[in-house]
Amino acid sequence: MGCELSKLAAAKSRNQSAHEGSHPPPQTATDPRLPLTARQKFTVMASWRAVGRALEPTGVYMFIRLFEENAELLNLFTKFRDLKTKEQQSASMELAEHARTVMTTLDEGIKSLDDMDTFLAYLHQAGASHTKIPGFDRQYFWKIEKPFLDAVERTLEDRYSENVENIYKLTIKFIIETLIDGFDKAQSDKAKS
């Protein structure tokens, strides 16, 4: 019996150290505004911690992928529109700084999935800020979806299973829809004033 107890204690302490700093296991109910189950939310928030430790390289890779697929978007970025090659882009301090800003926004958004009011307010504000960019179209938000997924896959490596990929697809879709809601509201408020 003593042996069983020590195994149990060892397993419990292993589990505790694996979950240190994380929230308790997910409850079954989530905010109805969140298009994820409690388990999906827990999975994305737990796996995101690894991305959070590599925000800038993940973000730079995401933007390089964005510009590979949508070269015309480079013109929206006055600070680095002249960086035409992958090498120039990956060496650019300005691009790294912008990547860090965008990834920090995504980081704050994902970390606040437990609090929908904070999540929505934060991402509505981020979406609204894009109304100040000359020539920015709300549909441009969708162009970051695939580069984001590629960058997360590259950062998570073998932890990026099919299940994790599906959860990230739901998550980035929800984030983009929320950014667009904030953008649209700011556009209509501008039009009224």
From TrEMBL:
It comes from Odynerus spinipes. It comes from the Eukaryota. It holds the Pfam family Globin. Keywords: Heme, Iron, Metal-binding, Oxygen transport, Transport. Residues 1-34 are annotated as: Disordered. Residues 35-184 form the Globin domain. InterPro entries: Globin, Globin-like_OT, Globin-like_sf, Globin/Proto. GO terms for molecular function: heme binding; metal ion binding; oxygen binding; oxygen carrier activity. This is Globin domain-containing protein. Belongs to the globin family.
